[in-house]
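Q: Could you fold this chain for me?
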Amino acid sequence: MFRKSTGQTPHQFVLRQKLERAKAMLRAPDARVLDVAVACGFKTQPALCTGLSWRLGVSPTEYRQDLVGSEDAPLVDS
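A: Sure. Below is the predicted structure, expressed as structure tokens.
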């Protein structure tokens, strides 16, 4: 029933929620990756790294660097 209503297995749904929370927490420049992993329910930092790499194709550090890079990019008027 869960899969029919959400299109995902319960495990996929929970993992997606954990990763979304981790992404939000990684936006804080002073947040340590280990602290984010534990706060989001991952048993280890590598578990978060694996999940984020699987979902986004980047590590938590690369994700954060991409955010900083996009914030520093100049705005272009159309």
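A (continued): Helices lie at 2-6, 10-26, 33-39, 45-56, 60-72.
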